[in-house]
Amino acid sequence: MENWLGIEGKVVIVTGASSGIGAAVVEELLNDGCKVANFDISDNHVEHDNLLFVQTDVSSRENVEASVQKVVDHFGTVDAVVNNAGINVPRLLVDPKDPKGKYELNDELFDKMVAINQKGVFLVAQAVGRILVDKGQGVIINMGSESGLEGSEGQSPYAATKAAVYSFTRSWSKELGKHNVRVVGVAPGILEATGLRTLAYEESLSYTRGITVDDLRAGYSKTTTTPLGRSGKLSEVADAVAYLISDRASYITGVTLNVAGGKTRG
């Protein structure tokens, strides 16, 4: 049914939207008639009349607040934000084979993941939230991960930042609900390969789990890993985001939707 979601003309900020899930979300929202701003470090050079690229470091308050103002100046307002920007670098807490080595978590990497995955969500949500509270309506979508609830071997810092995002979603929904602002999470599981699933990432994750890269890849589609027996499509996550932004989901807040094919273990 055409226009079932009814989100035409909505102004939506999507962070980390030059690739992966974020790019798929932008494509879906543009197809639904939204006006979209992509906050990312690098531009993927997608051209569309309703798409604005704003180079943004989500870990910088000054940068985030200036970027949000650019969106208001360009589109007139903001109706929703999708906090999608994040990084994931597999590391072990302790590597008995190589203490303090390449695959053992260090301060620099820990701080970087917290700055982008956790602080970045806070900064963007606050800057946009002020606008939504003033309007008395709007939606904040926080991109989580099933690893944030279940934990994930070799990915403890990433999982921990996503657990924080779960708590942000629950807590902010209680604070902002009185202003008619909804806060909802989306938690993807294993998804189809993108440029973000690099060989370096797979080598790191397989090392932390004591398996080969081939074994890791085989697990992407095993029913013992994901009950539906396949990797998810980026478009399936994007569809969920578009629905949650719409008034069709007007009574949904404070929860995180698991888009993971039934996967419930890290």
Automatic annotation (TrEMBL):
Entry annotated with the keyword Oxidoreductase: yes
InterPro entries: NAD(P)-bd_dom_sf (IPR036291), Sc_DH/Rdtase_CS (IPR020904), SDR_fam (IPR002347)
This protein's UniProt keywords: Oxidoreductase
One Pfam family cited in the UniProt record for this chain: adh_short
Taxonomic superkingdom: Bacteria
Classification via NCBIfam families: PRK06171.1 (NF004817)
Family (UniProt): Belongs to the short-chain dehydrogenases/reductases (SDR) family.
Listed name of the protein: SDR family oxidoreductase
Source organism of the structure: Aerococcus mictus
Taxonomy of the source species: Bacteria, Bacillati, Bacillota, Bacilli, Lactobacillales
